[in-house]
Amino acid sequence: MRSLFAVLSHLLNEKHRVNSQGFCIRDINQYKVRNGLSSLYSILPKKFKFNTPPTEHQLDKLAIIVVSSRESDRSRSSDYKIANLMGEVVGVQRQSDGTIRLYMSGTFSDNYGSQEIHNHPDVLIDEVNKLYQLGYR
C-alpha cells in the first residue's frame, strides 16, 4: 500500500501539491510535528540564511532536478525493455530579505523504450526548457 500511495502522490504532484507523508493524529506531539516539518520529504517550503551570504546573483533562482527510472517490462527473447522515467524539481530561490527558500516545484514522469530513455527523454528536456524560460539555472 505504501508503494502505491508513493507512486500515486508522485503522479498527482505533477499538477497539484500532494505528498504521502502523514501524521497519526491520535499520537501527535511537538517532536513529531517538528520532525515532520523539517523533513526533506515535507511538501512545505523551508527558509534559511547563510552565515556568509552568497555573492551577487548567485543562487537567485536555481532548480535541482532529481531523476530516477524503473524498468517495468521486458521480453525474455529481446534486450528491448520499457522503463518509467520519473523525477521531481526542487526550487531554490533567494528572497528579497536575503533568505533562501527551498521548495518542491513539481514532478514529472513518462515511459520510454530502452534506447530512447538514454538518448532523448522528452519529458526531462521539456522540464529543463520550461524551468530555463522561468529564469531558473
Descriptive overview:
The protein has 137 residues and is α+β, with helices and mostly antiparallel strands. Helix content is 26%, strand content 33%. The chain has a 4-stranded antiparallel sheet. It is flat, with a radius of gyration of 18 Å.
Write the layout of secondary structure elements.
Layout: H1 2-12, H2 30-38, E1 46-48, E2 61-74, E3 81-94, E4 100-113, H3 116-119, H4 122-133
Labels describing this entry:
137 residues; 4 helices; 4 strands
Q: What is the CA-CA span between the terminal residues? A: 37 Å
Instruction: Please give the order of strands in the largest beta sheet.
Output: 1-4-3-2
Record field, number of beta strands = 4
Structural class of the helices, strands and pairings? alpha+beta
Radius of gyration based on Cα positions: 18 Å
Q: What's the overall geometry? A: flat
Largest sheet, described in full?
Answer: 4 strands, antiparallel
Q: In what range is the share of β-strand residues? A: 25-35%
Mean pLDDT: 78
Q: Note the run of SSEs as H and E.
A: HHEEEEHH
Helix content: 25-40%
Low-pLDDT runs of 5+ residues are none
* Count of alpha/pi helices: 4
